[in-house]
Amino acid sequence: MNKKVVILILAMTSIAIFSGCVQADMKTIDMEKGTGNITVTAIPESTQELKKFSSAYELREYLKASAQSSGAFNGFGSGRDFAIAGSEMGRVMAIPTAAISKGEAVSIQAPSSDTATDYSKTNIQVEGVDEADFVKNDGKYIYVIAQNKLVILDAFPASDAKILSSTLIEGRPKDIFVNGDRILIFMEDTDTVYGIAEYDYMPRPRDTMKTVALVYDISNRENPDEIANYSISGNYFQSRMIGDNVYFIAKDPVYYYNDFVDMPVIRKGSARIMAPDVYYFDNPEQNYVFHTIASINIKKTDSINAKTFMMGYSDNLYVSQNNIYITYRKNMPVLYYELQREERFYEVVLPLLPQDARDKINEIKNSNLGQHEKWDKISSILEDTFNRMTEKEKQKYQEDVQKAIEEYEMKLAQEREKTVIQKIAIENGAIEYKTKGEVPGSLLNQFSMDESGDYFRVAATSQFWTTNSNIQYNNVYVLDKDLKIAGKLEKIAQDERIYSTRFIGNRLYMVTFKRIDPLFVIDLADPNKPQVLGQLKIPGFSDYLHPYDENHIIGVGKETAENEWGGVSIKGVKVSLFDVSDVNNPEQIDTYEIGKAGTDSEALRDHKAFLFDKKKNLLVIPVREVTGKEQYDSRYGYYMQKVWQGAYVFDITLNGFKPKGKISHFDDFEEQYYYWGSPGAVRRSLFMDDVLYTISARKVMMNDLKDISGINSIDLPFSKNLYDQYGWN
């Protein structure tokens, strides 16, 4: 056999020159082969135990070692105080502040005759766990973030509604919580900080982000009084309020460059009061992110509690009354892929060679030769082995290697695309790390997770590529209190992905989609044996599922239809009502389609935009509705679609949907019909007694729920300059 043939065979088996020697502990996974079981060394990692850095120096040395071993020689992230950590790590300082009145939490019990007896609250996932939003109400007042202002409206009765106060917030306010006479505002702001690299001669400035938590006393709603101001390094992620305790998370990419590491810090006002303890898991990551979890008692704001966890970049969060679950995808370092090539040869290719060749190669592998010398000798043995093969033997060898490599790559791909789940216990403001777990696949959003007793349930989509195929399917896992898999249901709806999920009691409702919309009903009563009870296949898909009652589900998504090319085209927004009384045969009771292709609703992506009340037979969703074909607009010089923007109001019963009316915040006909995504788009809705309130960036409108007739309208403070320059609406 000539050299060209040998090279061709080597290329076919994907054998590469070995990477340098690396000292690391290894985690193994079992792989089934046609000839028996083999163990594939997969991922370099260490103990996976939670550890705490004792100093900034220790953190810096860890990052330096990680950067060198992972191949990330240019450092991590992209920097904060040069007076970093030291003995301050983990210290909490109590700062005296003004006395705080004990206002009661939101209640539907009317404290006065001017308060609604029945009013809606933010649509949340877990009972008793409030979620921050830019609009809140307490049955009397509406609190709304209007660009860079906190606006408080005396909203009930609607006919007398008026703005009581408009408070400027220096930064970019995001979300709020209201608790009696306290309001907590989360905002993001830029911060210029300074760091001195090793042996540099002066501090260097760097712009960074910080999350700010502002607490106001609103006992006088005409004059909110700021009583606490805490800031934490990083971008605002998410928050929850349980009773009087508010938990929030800031994410800050680890900045490590030229032997300088940027530590997270907490300030009260401008005073630095705390450098949180930094915990980590000594497992490899391509990029590290500081996740600072902080808690504040909204009634007692003199102190803040916080811990920082260095982990991968999180994307989803689930919070129960007792635990926080943070999830992120595995992100393996460069070294992992280099090790994989060598492992693939020894663990997959080598066992398929004749015994004499295996013996010689193993002897070389265990020798003290350098890697290049080893490969020179091994390649000579391979050449000699191939030269002695018949054409039939060569063909069989190639087929066996190709099959084995594909199986090997599939196992490794499954390992790479796992989701890591970190469990952190919370109680009365205390924060305590518990454990971690992993599941194959990726999670869509917070509704892909649910805690039930001592179990944690997740739904995930697995998608990975091998040499010859793209594989996709869906899985359901039930994890015990230690986040070990207790039960699983895998490979559901192959070649499709999850579009929405909802856990309700011992059932999971899951929508997948590729060409049609299967709604699966999955039984979780036995944590060890989840099973599919039934499914319904219909056109379209649901992006959000909401319980109507224990046997009926509301879906909000998109309609679809087959197109002229044999594929599937997405049409307008669709609301659906499903009957799951017979879990083996779920049915669609009714559906209502809004608009043409391109029609959209914020409720598809943000459940807080969804308003439903069973007692009132009320369903409201914001809609940006495409009502016609593209038309050329000479004012702008290009084609535009007519778009209506507002809120759709439905009467919903077990018989289905009945459109009750539409509400728009636009005064100018041409503006609403050609202006996509404008400040006049309705984003939230709420009710107080029989009045529906809809909120956009520009105004709050009040309509009678009986017939959707107008009652009142209040313009919110709005700066076109902020909208044009920053897109603030």
Descriptive report:
- With 729 residues, the chain is mainly beta.
- It folds into 3 domains: 3-26 and 337-415, no CATH class; 50-334, no CATH class; 434-447 and 495-726, Methylamine Dehydrogenase, Chain H, CATH 2.130.10.
- Helices cover 15% and strands 47% of the residues.
- The chain is built from 8 helices and 45 strands.
- A 7-stranded mixed beta sheet has the order 3-19-21-20-14-13-4, with no helix packed on it. A 6-stranded antiparallel beta sheet has the order 9-10-11-12-17-18, with no helix packed on it.
- Helix 4 (355-365) runs antiparallel to helix 5.
- It is globular, with a radius of gyration of 29 Å.
- The model is unreliable at 1-9, 11-46 and 72-111 (pLDDT under 50).
Mean pLDDT equals 84
Largest sheet: 7 strands, mixed
Poorly predicted regions: 1-9, 11-46, 72-111
Alpha-carbon distance between the termini? Answer: 71 Å
Strand content: over 45%
- Structural class by secondary-structure content: mainly beta
